[in-house]
User: Which sequence fits this backbone?
């Protein structure tokens, strides 16, 4: 480290009160920003749970469908039409709906029911108990062991229950990578049983899952599907569509954005004000340095360095604090939807850099304007 | 001749409210001289000090230091001139209270990109010269007024400049301490490779001057010789 930066660091660290206030201010700001954005990303991830858990390469749906939770059933011929598109390796129907489970204690619990293609069971969960072939037994369901599992009374293999006035039996217990957004337990069964047992509209197929032969076939499948009046999306496109819905067509994105901006402004206010006070306190010394022979560019370098040191420290502590809280939340609160991704880390880092640069700029303006003649005038 | 000042004028504001701080000021300074600039408040002493040290640009006239007209230099070159050619002792010292004494002394070396440890080592030696060995690790506020003045002097000479500028060096000191400091400066800091300009209105220390310039209303009104 150059002597000039070391001098800057010494000046910064020696004013302990302001240094601590600066770091706390930015830590608090990063903590809030990280928490807000991690909640947002967590909600978005959970809202795309079905897309991620089923794991199909392409999804065919009604063009008005925005999220996997709100499907518009399609007639059976669509499945045949999709299967006939060149480039389709195979295609299978998927049912996603809601059922009402009557529990032993007399209460009712809504559950998401996923009906898998009978022949392939494509998109099935990983089993942790039971045998997947048991799904073909009469009335068989596989229950997902996620934070909502307890809402069904923590059923075991062999537990019987009622769903929409039909008998059901737990044939296996599975796990999925992402839990559902709305905290509903999830039951998997065959497509046939799901469409028989659950109240249905005239059409039954919620989605058609497609495996293209190669990635080059994807645009062809999308174009051909569009010709028959439906929409084919890759899993990533469907996740992006789902994200976009929650970001822009619900108040969720706007509210989180506002809260994130407020956190940014809080951080900027604390850091900007305190850093300005720090520069004011040292203004005479900066003037003396200028008189002795420091160039304005060197003073700018010193102030920017001080500001970035505070910014990075605040960022580190903020990330640490928010990560600890998210980890604690995930341990203690079922369905806690918060996830720290590279995206929100990067976003917080960019915001901290902006806070640091603006705070430094406020001080720099003052320092650049100091006339070393003032040092003589006193 | 280390310093030549020729027909320097400096004014503030515009006509008709223009105030003249310096009017046709001319003088020279040789190596080994300690020149005092004295006069009442508002006579232009501090303005003259700023002009000859490359801090305040005059409106006309020239200031030549070691053969170079400093006011032909751009801002960065002027900063370099001050860093390499001039040592400052400010009236209020302007020491960094949160740096140690030795770190304060090393500031001009740090600005000259001398490595940190090397700078501190040299500064410790300078502190010995000014009689403050053993006090290098203390913060300056733990030192007496006279000691702080010595730290400021150490800072001014650490980079070995040819021209030293003292602004009211005894203003914050009692009479005895002020005299001791100036005696010390004359006997230990001034040499044939260096010249010192002192702005003061403390007549108790006139005896240490090689020459005295009297100023009034921005003009030099009198030149007097050593100890007069």
Assistant:
């Amino acid at each position: 480290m150059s002597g000039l930066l070391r001098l800057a660091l010494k000046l910064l660290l020696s004013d302990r009160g302001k240094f601590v206030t600066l770091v706390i201010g930015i830590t608090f700001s990063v903590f809030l920003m990280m928490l807000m954005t991690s909640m947002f990303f967590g909600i978005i991830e959970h809202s795309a749970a079905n897309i991620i858990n089923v794991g199909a390469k392409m999804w065919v749906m009604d063009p008005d469908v925005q999220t996997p939770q709100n499907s518009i059933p399609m007639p059976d011929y669509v499945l045949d039409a999709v299967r006939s598109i060149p480039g389709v390796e195979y295609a299978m129907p998927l049912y996603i709906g809601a059922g009402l489970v009557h529990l032993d204690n007399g209460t009712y619990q809504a559950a998401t029911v996923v009906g898998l293609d009978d022949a392939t069971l494509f998109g099935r969960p990983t089993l942790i108990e039971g045998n997947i072939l048991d799904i073909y037994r009469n009335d068989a369901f596989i229950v997902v062991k996620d934070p909502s599992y307890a809402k069904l009374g923590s059923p075991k293999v062999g537990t019987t229950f009622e769903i929409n006035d039909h008998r059901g039996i737990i044939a296996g217990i599975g796990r999925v990578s992402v839990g559902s957004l709305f905290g509903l337990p999830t039951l998997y069964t065959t497509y046939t049983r799901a469409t028989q047992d659950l109240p249905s509209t005239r059409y039954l197929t919620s989605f058609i899952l497609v495996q293209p032969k190669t990635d080059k076939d994807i645009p062809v499948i999308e174009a051909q599907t569009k010709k028959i009046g439906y929409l084919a999306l890759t899993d990533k496109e469907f996740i992006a569509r789902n994200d976009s819905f929650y970001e822009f067509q619900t108040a969720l994105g706007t509210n989180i954005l506002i809260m994130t901006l407020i956190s940014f402004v809080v951080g900027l206010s604390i850091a900007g004000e305190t850093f300005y006070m720090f520069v004011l306190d040292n203004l005479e010394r900066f003037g003396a340095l200028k008189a002795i022979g420091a160039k304005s560019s060197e003073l700018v370098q010193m102030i920017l360095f001080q500001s970035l040191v505070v910014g990075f420290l605040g960022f580190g502590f903020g990330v640490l604090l928010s990560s600890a809280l998210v980890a604690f939340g995930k341990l203690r609160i079922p369905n806690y939807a918060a996830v720290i991704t590279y995206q929100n880390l990067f976003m917080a880092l960019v915001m901290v850099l902006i806070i640091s640069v603006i705070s430094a700029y406020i001080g720099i303006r003052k320092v650049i304007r100091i006339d070393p003649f003032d040092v003589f005038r006193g | 001749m280390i310093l030549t000042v020729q027909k320097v004028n400096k004014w503030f504001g515009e006509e008709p409210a223009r105030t003249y701080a310096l009017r046709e000021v001319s003088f020279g300074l040789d190596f080994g001289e300690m020149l005092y600039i004295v006069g009442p408040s508002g006579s232009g002493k501090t303005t003259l000090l700023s002009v000859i040290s490359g801090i305040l640009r005059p409106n006309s006239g020239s200031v030549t230091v070691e053969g170079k007209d400093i006011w032909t230099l751009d801002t960065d070159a002027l900063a370099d001139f001050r860093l390499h050619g001039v040592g400052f002792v400010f009236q209020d010292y302007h020491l960094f209270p949160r740096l140690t004494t030795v770190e304060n002394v090393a500031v001009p070396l740090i600005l000259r990109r001398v490595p940190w440890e090397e700078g501190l080592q040299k500064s410790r030696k300078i502190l010995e010269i000014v009689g403050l060995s053993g006090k290098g690790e203390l913060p300056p506020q733990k030192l007496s007024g006279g000691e702080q003045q010595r730290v400021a002097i150490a800072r001014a000479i650490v980079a070995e400049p040819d021209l030293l500028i003292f602004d009211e060096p005894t203003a914050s000191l009692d009479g005895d301490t002020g005299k001791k400091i100036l005696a010390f400066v004359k006997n230990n800091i001034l040499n044939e490779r260096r010249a010192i300009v002192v702005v003061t209105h403390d007549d108790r220390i006139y005896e240490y001057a090689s020459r005295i310039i009297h100023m009034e209303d921005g003009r030099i009104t009198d030149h007097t010789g050593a100890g007069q």
Summary: The interface with chain A takes residues 46, 49-50, 53, 55-56, 75-76, 79-84, 86, 88, 90-92, 94, 96, 98-99, 103, 107-111, 113-116, 119, 167 of chain B (CB under 8 Å).
